[in-house]
Amino acid sequence: MDDRELAEALGISLERLDRWLVKKRVPGRTGSRELFPQLVEEAKVAYRAGELGPPRKARRSVVSEGNRAPVVSEGNRAPVVSEGNRAPVVSEGNRAPVVSEGNRAPAPPPLDETSGAAPAAGTLAAADTAPSPPPDAAGEGTWRFYAKEAERLRAELRARDETIAALEAQRAPTPATHRPAREAAAGIPPPPDPLGARLTSAGLHRSETQAAALRALLARPGVAPRILELLSVRRGRDLEKLIQRYVRRVCDDARCRALAADEGVDVVPTAPEECEVCAGSDNRREFAMMRRACLAADRRRLVIVGGADDTRAELGRFSRDLPELDLRFVRGDATVLENEARRHLAGADIVVIWGGTVLDHSVSTPYQKLADQFPNVLLVKMAGRQRGIASMARAVRERLAAAP
Fold first, then answer.
1. Which residues on adjacent β-strands are paired with residue 34?
2. Other beta carbons within 10 Å of 332
3. How far apart are CA 336 and CA 370, in angstroms?
4. Does position 98 have pLDDT exceeding 90, yes or no?
5. Which helix (H) or strand (E) holds 312?
6. Boundaries of CATH 3.40.50 in the chain?
7. Which residues partner with 352 through β-bridges?
8. How far, in Å, CA of 252 to CA of 387, rounded?
9. How far apart are CA 400 and CA 295, in angstroms?
10. How far apart are CA 2 and CA 141, in angstroms?
11. What b/e sequence results for 64-90 when a residue is b if at least 16 CB atoms lie within 10 Å of its CB, and e otherwise?
12. What does the alpha-carbon distance between residue 253 and residue 240 come to, in Å, rounded to a whole number?
């Protein structure tokens, strides 16, 4: 091969190849040098490495008689498109349906190479999810590869189902007959027997007889602490609810006992500070008695005008502990217009004008002036010396007692 043939083979100019050969110190004339095979290979490597530069541009072909495009004439002119021969316009109504993965027609199942029959439906479904066969499985047959892959997946599913069944069996509740043995092995003491069952086994079958026997035992001196130690409660929260519903801890004051008796509960003696009625406070006891009187007269909405800040706070605590009364407070140093006072009177059953406390005449006057317009509202006026909560509660009870 000479250098001209090599330049044409590489697609470069002969001058560029000649400059490269000069660098390689190859003697001779351009276009006539016979190149050794080793030099040809080196030139090819240099061309790939970019040492010979980019390939030369393709020469623009010259139009001649042999390659000239045919002239359009009347005989070979393309037909003119008109209304009669125009192709129909494609629209939404006549458009061919687009083939997608959802509406593609299923390919026919391949035939078995050994029997020539189509595979079973279940086997084909399993093979559809199998991965593509590797190149080395082509000799074994595409269908045979899919069948083996489907069988492998079925085996994995069966193993998974067996594992799930074993775990579900472990989670199943232990039968009642095995529970005592399991708890004994774990060191858990057995649950206590119901008190009624023990009393029945002792010959006390009726509930009234059982209650009488317990009262007799608890009444004997020195026996009650032992009975309380022997008794065990399985549902302690239910016992607390029963005690809160039917038992009251009340002090020795007769007024507290009367209030507890009105609720229809059993009274258990206790210290004054533990009394559920007064908690050792005369104000709380009087408030409880006022509450009972208001509920009996069906007058639950009270508007209290005046009073100190700490007094109102204490009344709020009593109202939360002993609910069912709606207490509303009006500060004695606030600005109250007649419209606001009229609105308070319209929504109240009892209005207390708490004189002797922080109460301006400009605040109390609108209530006293408009009280005659609300005959159903009881107006309680307190003298200057009646400043405490107990005095206010007694004044309300006395007004309720005098009301028709």
1. 2
2. 22
3. 13
4. no
5. helix 309-321
6. 281-402
7. 304, 380
8. 27
9. 11
10. 53
11. eeeeeeeeeeeeeeeeeeeeeeeeeee
12. 25
Helix, strand or coil, per DSSP, at residue 338: helix
**Cα-flanking dihedrals φ and ψ of residue 74, to 5°?**
-65, -30
The model carries a pTM of 0.48
- The one-letter code for the residue type at 152 is R
Quick check: helix, strand or coil at residue 56?
A: coil
Amino acid at 187: G
CA distance 203 to 229: 22
Question: Do 182 and 174 meet the contact criterion of CB atoms below 8 Å apart?
Answer: yes
- Cβ contacts of 245 within 8 Å, gap of 6 or more: 265
User: Is the separation of the CB atoms in 3 and 31 below 8 Å?
Assistant: yes
Distance CA 295, CA 326 (A): 11
C-alpha dist (Å) from residue 264 to 248, 259, 277, 292, 299? 10, 9, 14, 14, 22
pLDDT in tens, 377-389: 999 998 767 778 9
Q: Return the structure tokens found at 219.
A: 């009444």
Lowest mean pLDDT among 31-35, 42-46, 206-210, 398-402: 31-35
More confident residue, 177 or 346: 346
- 27-37 per-position pLDDT tens digit: 655 555 666 67
CATH value of 281-402 in 2.40.160, 1.20.120, 3.90.1570, 3.40.50 = 3.40.50
Q: Which residues, in sequence order, are bridge partners of residue 328?
A: 303
